[in-house]
Amino acid sequence: MKITVISVGKIKEKYFTGAIDEYAKRLGKYCSLNLIEVPDEKAPETLSEKEMEQIKEREGERILSKIKESQYVITLEIKGAQLTSEGLSEKMAALGLEGNSDVVFIIGGSLGLAESVMRRSNFALSFSKMTFPHQMMKVVLLEQVYRGFRIMRGEPYHK
Hints:
By secondary structure, the protein is α/β, with parallel strands linked by helices. The protein has one domain: SPOUT methyltransferase, trefoil knot domain (Alpha/beta knot). 43% of the residues lie in helices and 22% in strands. The protein has helices spanning 14-27, 49-64, 85-97, 115-120, 134-152; strands at 2-8, 32-38, 72-82, 102-107, 123-126. A five-stranded parallel beta sheet has the order 2-1-4-3-5. Helix 1 links the parallel strand 1 and strand 2 (32-38). Helix 1 (14-27) packs parallel to helix 5 (134-152) and helix 3 (85-97) crosses helix 5 (134-152). The model has no long low-confidence stretch (mean pLDDT 94).
């Protein structure tokens, strides 16, 4: 299986990059992993609704330019489906059986995802109704994908 994670913004904090690198290394045993960061738009503290949408659309264009037509897209959205770790593992296994072995996970920027990106999504996934920094979400996502592969293969992993 090929897993691509597209995220908005560059991760600079060493404690996040260290965790990302660790899970990327662990995932190498289970899949081909590609991590793509697209630049975020600089935005002032106060924005009008229209300005927010314009920023999301510019970021969205960058995201969409990295996706192939044949890829199965999972967006991380607050209003998406909430799955257990076992549920995510089952979803990934089912995708592979259905011939969707090239999966893209998308993590939006600080303002969220553009409408155009959400329309391209094949499945909206939510880790919580809470909002998390995209740097932290990348770590959590990679950990859950790793856990999903371990569950799929019946390998032990702490609960």
